[in-house]
Specification:
The chain is an alpha/beta fold. Helix content is about 35%, strand content about 15%. The protein has a single domain, classed as Glycosidases (TIM Barrel). The protein has an eight-stranded parallel β-barrel with strand order 3-5-6-7-8-9-10-11. A two-stranded antiparallel ribbon has the order 1-2.
């Protein structure tokens, strides 16, 4: 994959890809599905827009589950989000459903549907702890400390990464062409809540895990992945790049920043975005990459004009490829765990205004 800005005659757009400058890239070079997606996102950035994303958008919503064509975003705005995020948690153990119970067959079908309507798909991954077999948040053991010396653990990790690669490689459109997706593995690593995070790994171990992941994907010929790196909030430039895998391994520089504490947290959220995202954007541009606010949101939307009064000013002037908020869980299971308004919520009008005025890309 190419990881710096290139000119590809086949797509007639500027794109980002791997290690070469645009002057070194021949227009006859093969353009991969990933290159095409990068070119499309770069074109959106250059137009002053960004894709709006929502996790598990068509799988379930505040009061429904698996209703064909349904979406809380669409129910409020009349359109689907321009980007949908999906998670591969439990693909590593060959489960039929992911960690939130969504069938992988459903995910594959919805990725195809989103692609057909002209939207973008992103994939995160919350794998089990390969040592304890607890979930991603189980930090009772630190497998990366042992990975270089424990052959059984090494084999397990390789098998798990291989299964993720095979699922992504299997994603095809109605004509059998590979569907490009953003893949964002080992996210929020600057925090200590995941087994691959700062409390359970050294920067060198984390970078080695990323390289290992990329090598396994490459060995399987996967060419439909746009790679996104996304540490968490409150980092200096030096801290952000302490675990950076390298320009040849990354296409999108991202950050996960959430809004906490309702109205009291408005200033903190804005300050966090403005402290980190400008240097992420600057470094992305310098390195020929895209930049994104890879996860964000205000759980339960207690700030009912959050989208127009908080998010829009926080990202104003930042050339971002996408901004993705988290999921809308079913009310009976997690009543306040939602990040976009559903019909009847007090934030409906504000979200519609955001969709109409922010430059965010939604699709029919």
């Amino acid at each position: 994959m190419k990881s710096t800005l290139i000119i590809a005659a086949a797509v007639a757009l500027t794109a980002c890809g791997s290690g070469k400058t645009s002057t070194e890239t021949s227009t006859s070079e093969t353009v991969t599905p990933a290159d095409e997606l990068i070119a499309r996102m770069d074109s959106v950035v250059k137009s002053g827009q960004f894709y709006f994303g929502h996790h598990d958008d068509t799988a379930y919503g505040h009061t429904w589950r698996y209703v064909p064509g349904n979406s809380d975003v669409k129910a409020v705005t009349g359109k689907y989000p321009g980007l949908m995020n999906w998670d591969l948690g439990l693909i590593e153990v060959d489960s039929a459903r992911n960690l939130d119970g969504v069938p992988f067959e459903f995910i594959a079908a919805e990725i195809s549907a989103q692609n057909e309507r002209g939207g973008v798909n992103a994939i995160s991954w919350h794998p089990l702890n390969p040592q304890s077999r607890g979930n991603s948040w189980d930090v009772s053991t630190a497998p990366l400390h042992s990975l270089a010396t424990d052959s059984a653990l090494s084999d397990t990790i390789d098998l798990w990464i291989g299964r993720a690669a095979e699922f992504i490689a299997s994603l095809k459109d109605s004509e059998g062409r590979s569907i490009p997706v953003i893949f964002r593995p080992w996210h929020e690593n600057s925090g200590s809540w995941f087994w691959w995070g700062a409390g359970s790994s050294t920067p060198e171990e984390y970078i080695a895990l990323w390289h290992r992941t990329r090598e396994i994907f490459d060995s399987k010929g996967v060419d439909n992945v746009v790679w996104a790196y996304s540490p968490d909030k409150d980092l200096t430039r030096e801290q952000y790049f302490a675990t950076y895998p390298g320009d040849e391994y990354v296409d999108i520089l991202g950050t996960d920043i959430y809004h906490f504490d309702g109205e009291n947290g408005v200033g903190q959220y804005t300050d966090r975005v403005k402290a980190q995202m400008p240097f992420v954007v600057e470094e992305a541009q310098k390195r020929g990459k895209l930049a994104a606010l890879t996860e964000t949101g205000c759980e339960g939307l207690p700030v009912t004009d959050w989208y127009t009064r908080v998010l829009m000013p926080a990202i104003d002037g930042l050339p971002l490829a996408y901004v993705c908020v988290w999921r809308n869980a079913i009310e009976s299971e997690k009543p306040q765990h939602f990040y976009v308004p559903y019909p009847g919520h007090p934030s409906e009008n504000d979200f519609r205004k955001f969709a109409e005025t922010s430059g965010a890309v939604f699709i029919k």
